[in-house]
Amino acid sequence: MYTTKKIIKTVKTRDYLSDYVNINSNLDYCIQCPNYNRNWACPVYDFNVEEIFKKYRNLDIYAVKIDFDSKNVGDKLEGEAKAILRKSLDKEKRLLHNELLSKESSRHNSKALIPNQCKLCKGCSRITGGDCVYPNKSRYSFEGFGGDLEKTASGIFNIPMKWVIANKIPEYTIIFGGLLY
Ligand code: SF4
Range of 99's domain? Predict the structure, then answer.
């Protein structure tokens, strides 16, 4: 159905912050997302993201490239094709979330950043105004911290980012997570 390839690159946090992070322009995308202010991993945050970055010297960026089966590429995102895309992304995000938690627990003074929103609960308690249900497992979103994903993919991983365009399965897509330390 699909194959994955994980690549990890280490960058200086101050370099990533100056060259790849644009909090305001990412926020424009976040505002259009249904998870904006409705998932504890996502903006709006009650802290300054730059101040968090500045507490850490390094950032390991995890890129998981998901290559879809050529027979599915270009399929309209409906029925089986939609299920393939959703299942693959959900599974790989969950795996990366868990891996980053494990890396965080084995490295002193580190902080994991997960791909996209937190999906540990069926519906995030932020929607109903409650506190996070699993604060020991949930983490903030890599994208929510303002990293430009297209620039990160091409500038750091030398892979052009591919998105779902015209509601069709792309050749591949990439999910990102990180570990600050
Ligand atoms: S653990 Fe549950 S309540 Fe907490 S951010 Fe994740 S989905 Fe929301």
Answer: 2-180
pTM over 0.85? The answer is: yes
Which residue from 114, 118, 128, 140 has its CB within 8 A of the most atoms of ligand 1, so it is best to mutate? Answer: 118
Number of C-beta neighbours around residue 98 at 10 A? 13
Domain count, the chain: 1
Q: Whose CA is nearest to atom 1 of ligand 1?
A: 134
CA distance 104 to 112: 6
Distance of CA 118 to the CA centre of its chain: 9
Closest C-alpha residue for ligand 1 atom 4: 132
Give nearest CA residue, ligand 1 atom 2.
Answer: 121
**Residue 73 near residue 91, CB atoms below 8 Å:** no
For the chain, 181 residues long, give each residue's pLDDT as a single digit of tens: 899 999 999 999 999 999 999 888 888 889 999 999 999 999 999 999 999 999 999 999 999 999 998 988 888 878 877 888 889 999 999 999 999 999 999 999 999 999 999 999 999 999 999 999 999 999 999 999 999 999 999 999 999 999 887 788 899 999 999 999 9
